[in-house]
Design goal:
eight-stranded mixed beta sheet, six-stranded mixed beta sheet, 27% helix, ABC transporter substrate-binding protein, D-Maltodextrin-Binding Protein, domain 2, 22 strands, alpha+beta, 3 domains, Dipeptide-binding Protein, domain 1, SBP_5, Dipeptide-binding Protein, domain 3, globular
């Protein structure tokens, strides 16, 4: 499931969150004068799977590609209101059904062709057809390019967070009709309008971008962005210490102490969760699903596996989704109770057949979490078979509808600041490849879209979470942010509330 972050629910395989801090949430550091030039090397544990922004359902891919593309509006540096990007300004009708955007004049794509309103309309319409993005944009009734610098967007019904959806890098703008090329030609040599241009890729090894000197915004300080793919966190640690890389993104939280550099973290807009396959007979019993949840010592997981960089979760939606904070859950299944869990296992009639737990080897911390869950569930009488998968294979398994037959349970992570794309992805994926009925989720999404005040929105989302706590089509585990480690020669990062951080303001000291 891709996506997350701020404006999109998505499975996170590895995210590129970078901020300057010292073993604490992001804050401006004691920075030196920026110096232009050089290559910024970033270490990741998963390669990109796509170069067309709307076609990706993998967070690592989205985070990397965000450096070469622009969106219509941008995630804010602070607060919640989207900021201008390719749109310099916009107005919204009183009924919330018409948006008029003024398009930034003088913007060029990397091949030198002008970016116009036509490209914006085509790109958003293309994204609307993609199953990964469809629900987030479903209320858009139509878009028109009034001239080269004006776009009108009509809504079929009001959607309070439609601008948040449009700031998602998956909604990035590309040349209309792929700039006259075939889709395969574009995938091989993509063109955007962002601060860096694509220069090459070796599949499974690296991807490289160059400074785009004609960028309309802050022209990058470094000459080159070089993302290097490593097999595991140990290799990343060695590369960071040797100076081969400058940034390690999405560090396994139980490995932070092994890294030699500044520890940096983002706001906790992600949710660690357990996906459940509805086709598994034993898991069709809600008692066994509740036993799985109550066997999880969330406090200990946050303390030991997340190194304190998070908090126990009680909702599937991220904390920032709720206008008035995460709701209180009655008769909560998220309270650790080994005795109750064991009793529920006995009541469920579970016979001991091993349940297959899959997880991505591209998410180092999930490898540790899988082992911890296996041990905790064993105490309750539940047998788990661990099945680590390469990130691409794992992604196929958990996004398949109907459900894939090679897993019973899966560790996943998702999130965002807005509930609409998160709920939309739950619908599109039938609870993350679980194959569950999503009629309640559809009703929730509709009711939320109709709600025009925070109190009503809060009530709608709280009712959804209360219902989910009893049906448990998915089990939430922890809220967390992305933790990265940077070398002390990295300077000039601008923190954002989004998980997609621009690297054009980053520089390297000697």
């Amino acid at each position: 499931m891709k996506k997350s972050l701020r404006s999109v629910l998505a499975i996170v395989v590895t995210a590129g969150m970078f901020a300057i801090a010292a073993c604490s949430p992001s804050s401006p550091g004691d920075e030196k004068t920026p110096v232009s030039g050089g290559t910024l090397n970033i270490g990741v544990t998963a390669d990109i799977v796509e170069t067309i922004p709307s076609a990706s359902a993998q967070q690592n891919t989205t985070a990397i590609l965000a450096n070469m593309y622009d969106t219509l509006v941008a995630a804010p540096k602070s607060g919640t209101e989207p900021e201008p990007a390719l749109a310099t300004e916009w107005t919204v009708s009183d009924d919330g059904l018409t948006y008029d955007f003024t398009v930034r004049d003088g913007v060029d794509f990397h091949d030198g062709t002008p970016l116009t309103a036509k490209d914006i309309v085509w790109s958003i319409e293309y994204a609307m057809k993609d199953p990964n993005q469809a629900s987030s944009l479903a209320n858009i009734a139509g878009l028109t390019a009034d001239d080269d610098t004006h776009v009108t967007m009509k809504m079929s019904k009001p959607q309070p967070d439609i601008l948040v959806a449009l700031e998602d890098p998956n909604m990035s703008i590309i040349p209309a009709d792929f700039g006259g090329r075939s889709i395969d030609e574009f995938r091989a040599a993509p063109i955007g309008s962002g601060p860096f241009s694509f220069t090459g890729r070796t599949v499974g090894t690296d991807i490289e971008f160059a400074r785009f000197g004609k960028y309309w915004g802050d022209v990058p300080l470094v000459d080159t962005l070089h993302f290097k793919v490593f097999p595991d966190v140990n290799a990343l640690s060695v590369a960071l210490q040797s100076g081969d890389i400058d940034i390690v993104s999405n560090v396994s939280l139980d490995s932070v102490a092994l890294m030699d550099g500044k520890v940096v973290t983002s706001a906790p807009q992600l949710v660690e969760m357990l996906q459940i396959n509805s086709n598994t007979p034993a898991l069709q019993d809600a008692k066994l699903r509740r036993a799985l949840s109550m066997s999880i010592d969330r406090d200990q997981i946050v303390k030991s596996l997340l190194s304190g960089y998070g908090e126990p979760a009680t909702t599937l939606l991220s904390v920032s989704s709720f206008p008035k904070g995460a709701p209180n859950i009655q008769d909560s299944p998220y309270i650790f109770d080994e005795a109750k869990a064991a009793a529920l296992v006995a009541e469920s009639g579970y016979t001991g057949t091993p349940l297959r737990l899959i997880y991505s080897t591209g998410i180092p911390s999930d490898v540790s979490l899988a082992a911890a869950l296996q041990a905790e569930w064993k105490k309750a009488g539940i047998t788990i078979e661990l099945k680590p998968l390469e990130s691409g294979e794992w992604l196929k398994a958990v996004t398949a509808t109907p459900p894939h037959d090679n897993f019973d349970l899966s560790i996943s992570r998702a999130g965002g600041a807005s509930p609409t794309p998160q709920l939309g992805f739950v619908i599109d994926s039938q609870y993350f490849g679980g194959g569950w009925d999503v009629s309640t989720v559809k009703q929730t999404l509709g009711d939320y879209s109709d709600a025009r005040d925070p109190a009503t929105q809060q009530k709608v989302l709280a009712n959804y979470e209360q219902n989910l706590s009893q049906t448990l089509e998915a089990v939430t585990i922890a809220y967390f942010g992305i933790v990265s480690v940077i070398s002390d020669k990295v300077q000039g990062f601008e923190p954002r509330v989004s998980e997609f951080f621009p690297l054009n303001t980053v520089s390297l000291t000697s």
